[in-house]
Design brief:
The chain is an alpha/beta fold. It is 37% helix and 21% strand.
Length: 324
């Protein structure tokens, strides 16, 4: 399968302040705050839902097609992704804007002050999926992830018009979208991804019940945190897959993206929905054990050993033949 992943491309700039923000705030002067914090360190990490998902697919041996907009400062990030099996030939490069970035300072009490710069992400709405399909010889599935909202709507409408199967994955953008937009983005999706909280929010904003939504999508995939994932299809029994045991719980950031990467890769292999979900859960476990969304290393022998322990010999044999 040729799978394109659309979504935000960003870098995270994370700083640590050794004191407490609260100690620097004067109650009766909050209307004229002017502060500068001397921080101890700066940690720059690659991020964005599009590259996070594509990186995971590349680690599993896939060749995902990243679709999104980045700035003229994207060269180093592009080289990293290219080296890890990601096709970056359809990334739009802005001539005037930087790549989107999240800048955040955390104090000793884990309070945070952060800003998100949209930057080049706003140009994602100018990307035509037909050009992507023509370049790679057609598309079998497009995951429409959190991105510039207008881009998400445009990609969805183009998939419907051109008959390209698509997966709807709003994640953090669901908070700013209204019911009409969400109905447009999910109606006709082959897969609808969300976590448990987002599932309820989707139903609340659209006014559609769970049953109505199941009638409008092919599969509803709901991640359940430490309990794994549930896959539902109208008129059929749901499939539930648990998480593999983690060695340590270091950082949950990017776990959902890793699940999607494993699940989509499993689909491209042609394995069952249950097997694809198991691959996704195993990859998500690797991410929760590391700090950063693209800092893990997939060692195939270790991956298969842990996969076998979690899901059994039969499941492992089916996956092994694809993983190599």
């Amino acid at each position: 399968m040729r799978i394109a992943v659309t979504g935000s491309i960003a870098t995270d700039h994370l700083m640590t302040f050794p004191g407490r923000f609260a100690d620097q705030l004067v109650a009766d002067q909050l209307h004229t705050v002017s502060l500068s914090f001397l921080v101890d360190n700066l940690d720059i990490r690659r991020g964005g839902v599009g590259p996070n998902i594509c990186f995971g697919m590349g680690q599993l041996g896939g060749n995902p097609i990243l679709v999104g907009a980045a700035g003229y400062d994207f060269d180093e990030y592009r080289a990293w992704l290219d080296r890890h099996g990601v096709d970056t030939g359809s990334v739009r490069i802005s001539e005037v804007l930087h790549t989107a970035r999240f800048v955040c300072t955390t104090d000793k009490d884990h309070n945070q002050i952060g800003s998100f710069y949209t930057g080049a992400m706003s140009e994602a709405r100018q990307i035509e999926l037909k050009a992507v399909a023509d370049r790679v010889g057609g598309l079998d599935l497009v995951l429409i992830g959190a991105d510039d909202p207008e881009a998400m709507l445009r990609h969805t409408e183009e998939c419907k018009t051109r008959g390209i199967p698509f997966a709807a994955d709003f994640s953090q953008q669901i908070a700013r979208m209204d019911g009409d937009e969400i109905r447009t983005l999910l109606d006709g999706a082959t897969y609808l991804f969300s976590n448990e909280y987002e599932k309820g929010l989707i139903e609340s904003k659209t006014g559609w019940s769970d049953e109505e939504i199941l009638g409008r999508v092919g599969h509803r995939v709901t991640t359940l945190g430490s309990r794994g994932v549930r896959i539902e299809r109208a008129g059929e029994e749901s499939i539930e897959v648990g998480c593999a045991e983690e060695d340590a719980k270091v950082d949950p950031t990017g776990v959902g993206d890793a699940f999607r990467a494993g699940f989509l890769t499993g689909l491209s292999w042609g394995v069952s929905l249950e097997r694809a979900a198991q691959v996704g859960c195993m990859l998500a476990t690797l991410v929760i054990e590391t700090l950063g969304t693209q800092e893990y290393t997939l060692r195939r022998a270790n991956f298969m050993e842990r996969f076998t322990k979690a899901y059994g010999d039969v499941a492992a044999a089916e996956v092994q033949s694809h993983l190599g």
